[in-house]
Amino acid sequence: MPHDHSDDAHPHSLLPSDPALRVKALESLLVEKGLVDPAALDAIIETYEHKIGPQNGAAVVARAWREPKFRTALFTDATAAVSEMGFYGRQGEHIVALENTDRQHNLVVCTLCSCYPWPLLGIPPGWYKSDAYRARAVREPRKVLAEFGLELARDVALKTWDSTAEIRYLVIPQQPAGTQGWSAEALAALVTRDAMIGTAIVPSPA
């Protein structure tokens, strides 16, 4: 007579198939076993939902566009400049700001893993961590940008910067025409995560 393995089922088999429900079930299991503090978990979720993300980097860019003194400080010591705005912590200890100009466009990659300025840009997108992007951004960066929909003029130099555990880069895109005199909030709303990695530009408002 065949043995019934139902009592020996692996714990994972007891989890629901829906990803969101699986996460909730795992969370409940960890809390029940005393491995996770619910308050600490809520604090982490709150931080990544509302306090860490590309809106922070966008605020830095907008301020650099509006304030020449801050812009100079940013390109002199970006870590100190963004810390003054309250953006610091793990993965943000050593920040270097890269200026896009009419003559040069900057593109950021991490060829070894996925080093990324988390306090400024949040969690890195999947494509940034992919083997294809990490290899091709160095080998054929113009083709990579074209696949993102960005065609650079031939007279614009393209420089690829390789992030490491010691240095993380933030691209400061060019301010689009027609936005001089805008408020910091309005300017920040134009700035995307991809523009601060270098796979996009900030277009002029319609």
Given the structure, what is the number of helices? Answer: 11
Strand line-up across the major sheet: 1-4
How far the N terminus sits from the C terminus, by CA atoms, comes to 74 Å
H/E order of the elements?
HHHHHEEHHHHEEHH
In total, how many beta strands? 4
Computed Rg:
21 Å
Category by helix and strand content: mainly alpha
Q: What is CATH's topology name of the largest domain? A: Nitrile Hydratase, Chain A
What share of residues are in beta strands? 5-15%
CATH architecture of the largest domain: Alpha-Beta Complex
Largest sheet: 2 strands, parallel
Helix content: 40-55%
Q: Any idea how many domains?
A: 2
CATH class of the largest domain: Alpha Beta
Overall mean confidence score, pLDDT: 86
Give the overall form: globular
CATH superfamily heading of the largest domain: Nitrile hydratase alpha /Thiocyanate hydrolase gamma
List the defining traits of the structure above:
11% strand, 206 residues, Nitrile Hydratase, Chain A, single chain, disordered N terminus, 2 domains, two-stranded parallel sheet, 11 helices, globular, mainly alpha
